[in-house]
Structure formats: structure tokens, C-alpha cells
Amino acid sequence: MSQSHPDQRSAAVKPCDPVWSDVRAQADAIVAEEPALAGFISTTILNQPSLEEAVLFRLSQRLDQADLPGGLIRQTFSRVLESHPELGEMFRADLAAVVDRDPACQRAIEPILYFKGFHALQTYRFAHALWKAGRRDFALYLQSQSSRVFGTDIHPNAQIGRGIMLDHATGLVVGETAVVGDQTSILHSVTLGGSGKESGDRHPKIGCGVMIGAGAKILGNISVGDCVRIAAGSVVLRDVEPRVTVAGVPAKVVGLAGCPEPARAMNQLFGSIGSETETAAEE
To answer: Serine acetyltransferase N-terminal domain location, by residue (predicted)?
Structure first.
């Protein structure tokens, strides 16, 4: 009885991608439940060879317009993905962040198909790679299109880590020299901006695991430490030490962060940190 050579057997086994398998299974379920969406789901998910290709295809769909058709955008994104395979890891980390932290997200397929915060973030990632490659105008074009389509304005030179959730994302502004650490959650109408007309390094540096509430404004070349909670509507104008909660206009320390990972907990209620042991000294 003949046996296959080990190399032949290995070549016949396709790499296992549990995330992509789950997304495809969810796509099949949508087609069965909503036949009217069958063409959209098949084109966007089922006809794509990988999660990475599905993401860039969906982005090119949404960014398509007459002056730069989606097909040309997709070709550019494909070349960027070839030279920056680490983008696939970032897609997956960001996708996992949304599934983990957004109670409105029930399936991994939803951010890929529908969530403009996820779409805006991945568009930024392509624009950032193009900016770093010296393709300034294409990167700025993508920034402009993202602003028009998704309601966000993220400069392509900003540095944003992985495992990021942009919840709703409408009205988000991230300046040119801003830095955002890994595993951070940012709600809508947040500004990471400058404090005047100064040039050079002029935008905030956000640590890892930070939760920034809706409408918060963080202005100037200041540092926000790891695992900080910034209350909705706060205006942060000075450095913030790690693992505290700040609130107000201007923002002040009102207590500890309340948990080891505020960006994952997404707890925005002050009542949960009201114990005397968590009260920080007033400035």
C-alpha cells in the first residue's frame, strides 16, 4: 500500500484560521436568514480567501467614489498588505477588542461589515503605512475620505497601537503627532488635539489600556499614563499619572481607575469607584 510523502500530506492541509472560519460560518447564517443580503455577503466575505482580504475589500467598497474607484484603492491596499503582513495581526487584535468590549457586538462579522469605527481605524492603518512609505498624498486622500465617509479625522502620521476599539467613532479627531497605546478604548467625539498654533510635537501621548469617554478633549503635548479612565466631557490639559480617573473642565483626579483594565471594563459610572480607599488626594 502506497503512502503519501510527509511533505505532500502537509501541503494538502490548509492552515487553520479559527477567526476566519467563525466569520465565514456567520456569513453562511446571514445568507440563510436574509436572502436579500446574499450578494453583499458573498462578495464581501464568502468569495474572499482570508480575513485580511475581506477587510480590505470592505474598506475599498466604502471608500469608493468617482475620483478614485474602489478597485484602485483595493489594489493599493493589497500591495500595502503584501509589504506589511503585520497589518493582519492588527486587524485581528482590533476585531477582538470590539467583540470583547462592545455589548452591541454579538458576532465577529459585524465590525467587518457594519461598524464604521473599525473601518475608520483600518483605513488609518493603511494610510499610516503609505505615509511612512513617502506616499503622503495618497495617505492624506484616505484621511479626507475617512472623514467624509466615517465621520472621523485621524492624521496618517499619528501612532496608534493594536487592540483598539473606536466605539461609534463619530466626531473623533486624532492629531498628527498623537500617540495611542495598545488596548485603548475611545468613544465618540473625542479630540486628541493641539493647544494652539505651535508646530512640531504638539499632540497627546496616551498610554496603554486607557478608556477615553465620549466627548473628552485631550489637548497639547501631554502624557496620559497607562490604565487611566477619562470621564465623558472632560478637558485634559495636564499630564495624568497611571491608573487614576480624571474628570471635569479642566480635568482633575477624582479617584483611582477602579479596575486593572479600564479599557476592557468600559465602566463609566463614578459610583463604582466611590470608596474612601480609592479617593485620590486633591491637587
So the answer is: 19-123
